[in-house]
Structure formats: structure tokens, C-alpha cells
Amino acid sequence: MFLAIACGRSTGGVALVDRLPASAAGVIVMNRSGSEAQLREVMKTLPPLPFAHQLPACALDLVAKVDQLALSFGDDPKLVFVGHGAGLRAAFESCLKVIAPRIEVKDEGDVTGYHGPDLTFYLAWIDGDTVVGGADEPRSAAALRSLPPLSGNASLSELRKKVDVGAPVWFAIDPTASKELGSKSAQLGVKRAWAELGLDWMVKATLETESAEKATELAANARTGVARTLAEAGLDVSAKVTTDGALVVITADLGAPVRKLMGASELPPAAVSFAAIGFAAGLALPFTQNKRKAKTAEATVLVKKLHGGALAYYAEHHGFPPSVGPTPPLGSCCGQPKNRCAPDAKLWEDPSWKALGFALEDPHYYSYRFTSDGDQFSVGAYGDLNCDGVYSTFEMSGKFMSDGTIGGAGGIYQDRPLE
Q1: Looking at the predicted structure, is the pLDDT value of residue 410 above 70?
Q2: 109 vs 142, 293, 339, 385, CA distance in Å?
Q3: Which of 64, 288, 319, 392 could cysteine-pair with 419, CB 3.0–4.6 Å?
Q4: Helix (H) or strand (E) segment spanning residue 325
């Protein structure tokens, strides 16, 4: 899926929204209402957020500084974000020192690398106010800057004319640009959709279907589905669902439930901007770290498989094959597309790999090794996900005892797993 959050600020002669890729299937646009100073005043009047005590003061200050923000998901690239705010880089890096003091900042040509024990990410600062980045490693932040701009997407350009682009938040999506979204929307009969959230917390969403008959059917399902979703979320909101030809129109007033949630009798209009920026800003960094964690699944699964292969070989041959690996050589994956090693059958032709029944037929992030010494053995996976020369380690070992049992066959030993 490709979803983008963006705004209309012009940076370097290019509208911020057009720094998103033309391959986007949709955009959500956020515009801050008022100045940074006005937003700070709004923040002072709001009740404390439930999670505010967990954040350093600089985090909320950073949110107030952002006047435009873009966060993008998609088939390729999977995640892109663009942000703008006066003095944003200085504020971001100052707050980063508070949140993650062990992160080292390195200028690396067109990008800036942020390297920590458990997290590494890259940003491309167009200037001190505008940043472009992506968590779809290894596509660099610099490369994201040169992707074909969103203005080249004819369908989304048309949908942008259907919404109030001055609203705090607006959304437009063409699911056909994404394989995942395309198949799901086809089942629902939705061709395109757009929506906007106003300063009065009124939401209006429009779904474009194939026909008036399909719109009537979808509207009936939407009435039930929306009501159930709002009830499950504990929101006392009445949504109105109507049809207009092949269009399904959904409207709802979120003001009352939001005021109740915040414990405030009134919410200034700029609070919409605060909520939108804060929500979007909270998504990028955790997504990057979770994506890195997902990649480690390869190592844990295949190390267990290799460990099982060694046990099976010993049971049949009462010994182990000679040591082999790391295969491919350490560092081989860095520099290849997506920093993944392309499958190469020749790499696994060593007799030891064949004896263990181990070969990789798909792209992979890690190098693998098997070592043996008499009745003892160990297997391991070694990777450099951020290509900084520091390797993660995943290892399992075993030793056949004289009574036929296996000693030392505990879980997987891990060192620097997110490197």
C-alpha cells in the first residue's frame, strides 16, 4: 500500500506535497493553522495528554515547530516522509540528544546518518527547514529526493481539485496504484475516495463507486460498519451516510467526542493542527525500528533451520561435516538492491552446505556459517542491516554427550540484533 501525508508548502521552488513520489496511491495533506507561537499558546490551554509525562519537553516543542509534514507508505518505496518548519533541523537534532543521547550524527554526503546501538536511520536535509527521508531501506534519503514528483500523478491531481486544500487535513486516494489496495477496493467496489477534516472538526468523506446501484449497496454496509466502528472506539458520534449517484458521502462531527476525550469544554481551531502533526510525527521513528526488527526474523528462522539440519546429519552419520562460511562473505549484501543479497545457487555448492541441506533461494540480509569440532557444532547468522560495518549476531550451538543427549542446545544467542 502507498499512503502519503503531505502539505502545500513550497520548498526550493517545489511544493512540499510534490516531493512525494508519483507512484503514490493516495495523499493525506496536513496544514498547520496559524504560526508556531499561536500553536504553542494552544498547547498551553489544552489539558495534559495521557502520554505527555513520557515525553521530554523538547518533543512537544518539536511538534509545534513543524508547519508541514508528509508521511508516505506504498508499494515502492514503502515509506517516505517530508517535513518542514523554521529551524526544524536544529530543533530535531537538539531533541534527539535528549531522547537518544547515544546516537551519533554523521554527515554522509547527500544524507545525514543517525547511528545508535539499536537504531540507525538516514535523513536528507534540503536545508535547515525541510527534510526528506524513508524507512524503505536501502533506498537512501538522497534518492527519495529525486523520485518523480506527485504532480505527475494525473489521478491524484484530479482528486486534489475535489477537496478544500486549505483544510487542516485532507485526503485523496486512487487504490489502483497499489496492488494491495487495488484488490481490496475492487472487492468493495470503490474506485477512488477523498475526504477532509475542517477546523470545526467536521469530517466529510466521499467514496466513488462503479454505479448508483453499487453506491446504494455500499452505503447500506457503510451505515452499519461506521456505527460499529465508532461504538467499538467508544466515540459518541453520529455519522450520516448518503448517496449522490455513484458517490457515497459520509459526514461526522468529531468535535464533541474529542472535547470529551481531552476533558475540555472548548478546543481552539488550531488544536486540529496540533492533533494532526502530533499523530503523524509519532509514526515515522517507531516504523523505522519495527521494520528493522521484522528483518531479523530471517536470521532467527534460518538459524533454527540450520541447527536442525546439523542435528539430523549427526543422527545419520555420527559426526558433522567440515566447517563452512560465512556464506556469502560478510558485507556482501551492502550495496546490492535494498541491501539484500541476491540468491546465488553457486554459493551453496560447498559439500558441507549440501550435507546440511541448506541453501537460500530468495534474497536475504544475512550471511550464514557452520562450524564443527568433533562432537560440538555451532551455527550462526551475521548481518549489517544499516551497512555501517557493525554486525549483528544470531547463534545456536550444540554438543552430543556420551549418553546420546544434546548439551548446550539452548535458545538463540543474539548480539546487536538491530545492526
Answers
A1: no
A2: 9, 27, 18, 20
A3: 392
A4: strand 324-327
Residue 205 has φ and ψ, to the nearest 5°, of -120, 140
Location of C-alpha cell 550524527: 105
CA 251 – CA 197 distance, rounded (Å): 10
CB contact burial 61-100 (16+ within 10 A = b; e otherwise):
ebbbbbbbbbbbbbbebbbbbbbbbeebbebbeebbeeee
Q: Within 13 A of 145's CA, how many CA atoms are on the CB side? A: 17
Alpha carbon 12 to its chain centroid, in Å, reads 26
DSSP string of 202-243, one letter each residue: EEEEEEEESSHHHHHHHHHHHHHHHHHHHHHTT----EEEEE
Q: CA triplet 342, 343, 348: central angle to 5 degrees?
A: 135
DSSP string, 366-407: EEEEEEEETTEEEEEEEE-TT-SS--EEEEEEEEE-TTS-EE
- pLDDT on residue 350: 94
AA letter at 116: G
Which residue matches cell numbers 512540499?
16
Cα distances (Å, whole numbers) of residue 4 to 80, 122, 202, 376 = 8, 19, 21, 52
Report the share of the chain in percent with pLDDT over 70: 73
Q: How far apart, in whole angstroms, are the C-alpha atoms of residue 63 and residue 278?
A: 6
Taking the C-alpha atoms of residue 221 and residue 217, their distance in angstroms, rounded to an integer, is 7
- In DSSP notation, 254-286 reads -HHHHHHHHT-S---THHHHHHHHHHHHHHHHH
Contacts 24+ apart (CB under 8 A), 186-189: 188/218, 189/214, 189/217, 189/218
Q: How far is CA 419 from CA 116, 211, 293, 382, in A?
A: 9, 51, 10, 10
Between β-strands 406-407 and 392-400, what pairing exists: parallel, antiparallel or unpaired? Answer: antiparallel
The three three-digit cell numbers of residue 25, written as one number? 496511491
Cα separations (Å) of 74 from 79, 155, 172, 216? 6, 16, 14, 30
**Average pLDDT value over all residues in the chain:** 78
Pairing of strands 26-30, 3-6: parallel
Beta strands in 154-189 (DSSP E): 169-173
Q: Is residue 347 pLDDT above 70, yes or no?
A: yes
Measured CA to CA, the distance from residue 143 to residue 339 in angstroms comes to 14
